[in-house]
From TrEMBL:
Membrane-spanning ranges: 12-31, 112-138, 168-187
Protein name: MotA/TolQ/ExbB proton channel domain-containing protein
Phylogenetic placement of the source organism: Bacteria, Bacillati, Bacillota, Clostridia, Eubacteriales
Keywords linked to the UniProt accession: Membrane, Transmembrane, Transmembrane helix
Organism: Clostridium tarantellae
Amino acid sequence: MDIIQSFLNQSGLGIFIIILIGLLFITGCILSNNVGKKYNYLLKCFNDSEEKLTKKNQNDKDEKLGERELKINELKRMEEEFKNSAQLGTTNVNTEVIIQKNTDKKTLTNEAIANILPSFCIALGLIGTFLGLTIAIMNTTGVLAEGTQSMDQFSQAMNGPLVNMSSAFWTSIAGILASMVLNAVNLKMKSSKENFYDCFEDYLDNVIFGIYLKTELKDFNEIVRISMMALAKDMRCLFQDGVKELVNGINKNTIDLTGTVKELTNYTKDLDRLTSSLNQSVENFKDPVDKFKASVYEFTTLSDDLMKATQSSVNKFTDKVDSLNNSLNLLYSGIDVNKQELEKVTNSLKIQEELLQRSYTNFTEIMEVVKVSQDKNSNEFINQIEKLNTGYVTFESGLNQFMDNLKLLQDDISRSISVSLKEEMGSLSNSIVNKLDVSIRELSIAAQEMGNNTSNIGQLIKATNEWIAVTKETL
């Protein structure tokens, strides 16, 4: 009952601050609850989504690989941005940044406000405490300065300071209680957020990343596939052109044979020389062709698991090589084309090397900028410590002045109360004065303890300065 009476009898300032704390408390609960519901809703939508058929490679069949059919735009944006990073070849994708970037800005703002409101409640409580104590001290000083003629008047005059002291403590109590409850509510909100982040990050990192990651092996296989297809196409064209030329020559010679026997004889000799030359060319190129066939067969065997989509094309290419034994004189043209493709690959690698060198140079410049920024921050921290030392000196001098004023005030209080009580009461006045002296001595002891605490703060600042000096030497 006394506690309730003390709460109801506090000043208007205390009630106003407690109302503000209550408004902050209600706002924090609403915001935290809304943010928690938002994350729970996203998690529910993700868990309710169904798996869809996905094609691992271009020529593979559609199958369920764990990718989900998301229906919420926020989740879709997160998934698409992560896919783009994985397809570009990024090995360390910052999943948390992608999720936070595509989350509703209102939700992030409400979350930040909900996290800072407990501190505001405590701050308002402390402000109410300091204001209440300040007003109580001012009122007490005014009462003692005016003086009283009786004990009843003194008790009535002290009602104001006592009410302000009650407000000072009740505001702190309200701020602390509101902060405790808000922290508990925020803990539930953070739990909902962590559950969503853990589930969705696991989906992106372990499912989507494995499906859409673009590796150097895929690039190499694509280059080999394109080169083989171009080589097979060029070889087919060259073979067709050679056959056409041979057929045209045979037709022309056949027409000339109808002329004279001499032309037939010359043509027969030319044909024999052509056949001999062709047989000699076949003998000269048989071993390289066999080696080339063996290399192609070995390549198709080793890459069987990685090049299922190109296995049939490679086998067709091997069959085409077997059919080119009668036109090997045109093989050099196909080899030149293959050489040009290899030169393109070499030029591409050189360009990648130059880009890597530029990236390394940019990284070095960034490290220099970070080093300069670190030195600048260290100097600013040292300046802040020096300002703290200056503030401590000012605070210590103010505390000493407060203790001196308290000693002077002690003598004035004793004299004023003694004069008032000697006129009204005899023996009772001496007892009251003694009790007030005891209270004032306790106040002096409290002031001395405050001075000791100030000394401890000075030692702490001194230790901080020593730590800064050690840090400077280390840097």
